[in-house]
Amino acid sequence: MPIRLAAVAGAALFVSSCQETAVQPQPMAGADPARGRRVIEQVGCGACHLIPGVSWPQGRVGPSLDGFGSQALIGGRFPNRPEILARWVRDAPSLAPRTGMPAMPMTEPEARDVAAYLYTLDAR
Amino acid sequence: MSPPTSTRSTLAEALRGWPPPPLDPAGPHAGAVAALSWALFGMFVAVLLVVVAALLVALFGKPAWRRRLAREKAIWIGGLAFPVVVLTALLVWGLTLTRDLTAAPQPGEMRVRVTGEMWWWRVVYLDGEGRAAILDANELHIPAGTPVTLELEAADVIHSFWIPRLAGKLDMIPGRRNILRIQADSPGVYAGQCAEYCGGPHALMGFVVVAHAPAEFERWRAERLAPPAPPPDAFAARGAQLFETAGCGACHRVRGTGAEGLAGPDLSHVGARRSLGAGILPNNHGALAGWIADSQAIKPGNRMPPYRVLSGEELRALAAWLGSRR
Questions:
Q1: Cβ–Cβ gap B298/A42 under 8 Å
Q2: CA A118 → CA A38, A106, A123, B64, B294, distances in Å?
């Protein structure tokens, strides 16, 4: 009986943890999405990207970031993980030397805030 | 690669806030206009109060008071003499003010010709003889505490030049030269906006005035007159070459290169500007690259075509070169 209970509990835990990763945005510890949106407006990411929540500009040079939170890859090459994204938004050429996305003038904490905002853009 | 330092679009910030910029003068010329505005406002409140009081007396007052109000003398004074005197005084005040603000340039005064174009501003600093000394666009640098005379012109349609904290609006009319004097009392950044509908992206036609402390301004002027620096690194040098081969020089001028086009904004010092696209975007490599690749998505209808032939790396090289033109 205890073994069975443990198995059921374990299964439930497994299922619930799966659901959590599927539904919740990726964690970006200590970062503030609202601040990230302000940084996005300040440095003008919209010059190249359509970003939900940023009314203008809505550039068409780079991909639309609608639903970015559930996108698998960054720039079509790197797994969409928080630490990679925070580096990408700040200095993409250091990861992909041939990319069209330039290094953007923001600090590391600001880059983490920007990443946190992008993870709120979940296509649901 | 270090990104340029100016990252703020000053326009949006400077046109909002409390008190509203037109009522928050930063120099004597805007101050005189604001004083007149407040006088008109005060007058309007006083007249409103008197009229409402008279109305209340006429409706509910004691018979003796009502008779007084109906006398011929009250009509002559309140209905004729008072408006004639007050309105004439305000008219004289307004006309004198306009004359002082638009008087012809004095010898020795700093003169800058600003031309409204669809949808940006051509800025030409004139020397003592009225010849073009420094070419720039969308941004005006002035010494604080000194009046500067602006010669306002238009290249195509009517625009209106308006830096709310420094002066009132003045139209830019094709075929005419209007004179406007501005002065900033202290160093700072003052935003402006085209105030006359001039077609398509009129709302995206902003302007920035940067007032420097006098010594700082002299340093700025010396920098602008010094020979242009070579590209800082190989990547920027590649951008310079791309600028030439892509034909950007047909419309844009960059001092010290073969690019001599005058149809679009002068880019000799574009990297030093506070904003891009005429006061609308922050100035950094990303916004530069995005503007070059497809400015039509940002400012629809503007005269610059999208450059879809350039690779991502080439766009970044161009941005690095232009960002280094300071």
A1: no
A2: 12, 15, 11, 76, 23
Domain holding B93, by residue range, is 24-101
Residue type for position B185: D
Facing residue for A61 by CB, picked from B1, B3, B293 = B293
Q: Is A47's CB within 8 Å of B315's CB?
A: no
Query: Are B182 and B126 in the same domain?
Result: yes
CATH of the domain at B158: 2.60.40.420
> Among the three residues B101, B131, B158, which one is the final residue of a domain in this structure?
B101
Q: For B248, list phi and psi in degrees, rounded to 5.
A: -60, -30
In a domain, B317, yes or no: yes
Q: Which residue has the tokens 């200095």?
A: A91
CB B212 within 8 A of CB B143: yes
The tokens for A87 are: 């580096």
For chain A, report the end-to-end CA distance as a whole number of angstroms. Answer: 40
- Do the domain assignments include residue A124? no
Residues of chain B contacting A102 with CB distance shorter than 8 Å: 1, 3, 284-286, 288-289, 315-316, 319-320
> How far apart are the CA of A62 and the nearest CA of chain B, in angstroms?
8
Residue B89 lies in a domain: yes
pLDDT in tens, B130-160: 899 999 999 999 999 999 999 999 999 999 9
pLDDT tens-digit profile of B53-86?
A: 999 999 999 999 998 888 899 889 988 999 999 9
Report the domain count for chain B.
3
Please give the Cα distance from B321 to B241 (Å, whole number). Answer: 9
Residue of B212, B99, B115 lying closest to B156 (CA atoms): B115
Question: Angle of helix A33-43 relative to helix A108-119, nearest 10 degrees?
Answer: 110
Residues spanned by the domain of A25:
2-119
ipTM: 0.80
Type of residue found at B158: I
Q: Which residues in B lie closer than 8 A to residue A43 (C-beta atoms)?
A: 7, 282, 284, 286-287
How many domains does chain A divide into? 1
Question: For residue B257, is it within any domain?
Answer: yes
Interface test with A, best of B2, B5, B6, B7 (most A CBs within 10 A): B7
CATH number at residue A110: 1.10.760.10
Residues B123/B155, Cβ–Cβ less than 8 Å? no
Q: Specify the pTM.
A: 0.85
User: DSSP E strands: which ranges in chain B?
Assistant: 110-117, 120-126, 132-137, 139-143, 148-154, 159-161, 170-172, 178-182, 188-193, 206-212, 275-276, 281-282
Chain B: residue whose CA lies nearest to A105: B3
